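Model it.
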Amino acid sequence: MTAGTSARVGTWTVLADRTSATFTVRNFGVRVVHGSIPVSLGSVRVSMDGVAAVEAALDLDGIDTGNAKRDADLRKPGLLAIDAHPVLTFAADRVEGGPGEWSVHGSLGARGESCPLTVTGSGPADNGDGTWRVVARAVFDRRAISLRAPRFLIGREITIALDVVLAAPG
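Modeled.
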């Protein structure tokens, strides 16, 4: 599928310092834990025929839930195994929809595993400074990347919210 005729051809670069990736997951079955993961890089390449390819990487070593003990536990080999796999990746080459509402179908990589992931979003919106803003969301089952934990400790579904600022191609 294509990115739509309004997408400018070239590589759109994610401005990591102006982009946020947050997540939510249930803890102990009822409480919702919020956290953030720094975005280390990202791009959207739009070809002459309007086909888009998306790539992104998040720095799991910077994961922050506001609780140092929980963050240390998440880094352990039994959970995110951050020493061995410090980056969460996303790559996609199928975009459906167009300006306004769209979905991107790709693959999430973490812990040496990968699983399909669909990211849905809105935008882009022109920021008026040569950058564009995209807001997106995805939900996945942690078991798809072999993240095993008792369900009462960590909920199965993890929701990722993205607020992305892209620099338009030169």
